[in-house]
Amino acid sequence: MSGRAALRAGLGLLAGGQVVLGLWILLLPELFWKWPWVSHLPPYNEHLLQDFGGASLALGVVLCAAVATMERRLVLTALVAYLVSSVAHLLFHARHLEPLSAASAAGFLALLGAAVLLPAVLVWLAADGTAFREPGSAGTGRRPE
């Protein structure tokens, strides 16, 4: 798999996850709140959930645009935005594990850690620009004719 294909696949995975999460929270906030890793937090607040769902969906839109265009600046911006969000999410939940069993806490932190690791790897892959070069143009700076 080429770097470009791997980058596009990773972006697509992140985008799909954000779109599903955003729609789930916007359309079924009570069901999202019943999720064991969420329901142990402070009392249910529909307003905050709707805001979070909208923000997740908005990030999904930006990630989808990055997948569609594969334009380097947009890809890097979308990935860094996702990374900022996922690091903040991991740090919050890492400080609020008390109500969870050890196994549940470990699984949750592994999931949140993967949500940090994947975009970090994709940023690394996108940073040198190789994944954005046209096939056959390596080293020339020109597109193939």
Question: How many distinct beta strands?
Answer: 0
Distance between the termini: 24 Å
What spatial form do the alpha-carbon principal axes imply? globular
Helix share bin = over 70%
Description:
The structure is a single chain. This protein is an all-alpha fold and 145 residues long. The chain is 74% helix and 0% strand. The chain is built from six helices and no strands. The protein has helices spanning 3-27, 29-33, 36-39, 46-69, 72-94, 102-127. The protein is globular, with a radius of gyration of 18 Å. The two termini are 24 Å apart. Mean pLDDT is 89; it is low at 140-145.
List the helices and strands and how they pair.
Blueprint lengths: L2 H25 L1 H5 L2 H4 L6 H24 L2 H23 L7 H26 L18
Helix pairs in contact: 1-4, 1-6, 4-5, 5-6
Task: Supply database-style keywords.
single chain, mainly alpha, 0% strand, disordered C terminus
Summarize this entry quickly.
With 145 residues, the chain is mainly alpha-helical. 74% of the residues lie in helices and 0% in strands.
